[in-house]
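Let us work through a complete example step by step.
Step 1: write down the sequence.
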Amino acid sequence: MLFFYIGEECEVTMQINRVRSGVLSLTAFILSTLSASVLAQTAATVAPVEALANPYGIQAVWAQGDLVARGTLLILVLMSMASWYVIVSKYIEQARVNKQSRAVEGDFWNGASIRQSADALEATSPYRFIADKGLESASKHDGMLGAIDFNTWVTMGIQRAMTNVQSRLQEGLALLATVGSTAPFVGLFGTVWGIYNALVSIGMSGQASIDKVAGPVGESLIMTAIGLAVAVPAVLGYNWLVRRNKLAMEDVHAFGNDLHAVLLATAGKS
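Step 2: predict the structure and record it as tokens.
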């Protein structure tokens, strides 16, 4: 009887194990099927959506704008081109002046005379211009000009020359200041004009849907963005070039003071 019970118990245990294995296999199959279905749905959900073509932009502003809108856009483009031309050209000019300043510091005062050292400089050098004006003032101190003190007369000649150099270095900076201060308002004018035309068109059509309002208004705001894009480089370039001009003029004033002292010493010896 004992062996009978043991054999029956073993058979029951084997059946339970077979049932458990079947349940686990079925569960694994169901889970794998569900996982595949979920992954497929997720992939379909996150599939890239084709980007809608943007019907608005600068091209639309130019194509759909009237004469005033196009004229405003052209003015902003011309202002940007002019400001960048001034920035690049003045930078090149200032770099040339700085190079000529280093040449003066190295060789000018080692010459036999001011005339000889001035002739060795470039024809376009502001330092040669100042030296020529100083020598001219020292040599033309006669007639009614002789009534003026020699020191005062030479000082006036050198000072006029340095003022002339400073004026040439500042040429074009007024344009940058003008562009930097007026470009945002030109762009704002284009925005106001565009919004006005958009509202008139919406009122005439009688449709005030979001696509009828947002598109034209967004196109109008492009004008303000362009105005700011024109003004910011102009303002930054103006401040940068003014700073460089100040540094260049410090060297020019130092040269003028040294030239004045040498001319007075030479005149006193003669």
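Step 3: interpret the result. The longest helix spans residues 210-269.
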